[in-house]
């Protein structure tokens, strides 16, 4: 095995227990503009730019009008990708990682559950906790106006979907959380302003939905599912991380 994948896994172990999201150079580009897509990881107030790693990317795509094309970029560089928007309307960028392995002490794992995951699970009585994790991030950019908005469902293992267009500027925004292509009820959604870093946590309904009252500005929604791992000896948990970024106009 080459050294690069091993280094990658070790680096991710230090950073994995933080939010991971897509940050376009513009959420409202003009037609034919080149959009640069940063990947951010860490605390929203002090994020770290995550460089493009081919060993990590399973799918990195731009979706528009039921068509999907790869988001290109250069390995080891940030921004991690870029694309040119050639048509008017809503465009969704999706990023799905391969599964990676993280190891941390029992104490750090408990802190991560409380501060990042907002969930409670029974932690094994052992010094080190080993976890498989997978990330599924999305961002919505809007070029001009459109007459009809179609929610973009990509089919990732965990996925947040905007059922109403954030650019419509309505009083509420409807979102749905899917896990393994099914609505996920009673799961926490973390809502964070990327402008002033105010945040709150809401739970999804039995249909996996939430109606959000958001002010104009840039927003990040994230959600996490953590389950006990049973397939591989010495691996304790599987975690699935979803995020969605967008802007609401003034």
From TrEMBL:
It comes from the Bacteria. Keywords: Signal. The keyword Signal applies. Pfam families: DUF4198. InterPro entries: DUF4198. Residues 1-17 form the signal peptide. This is DUF4198 domain-containing protein. It comes from Uabimicrobium amorphum.
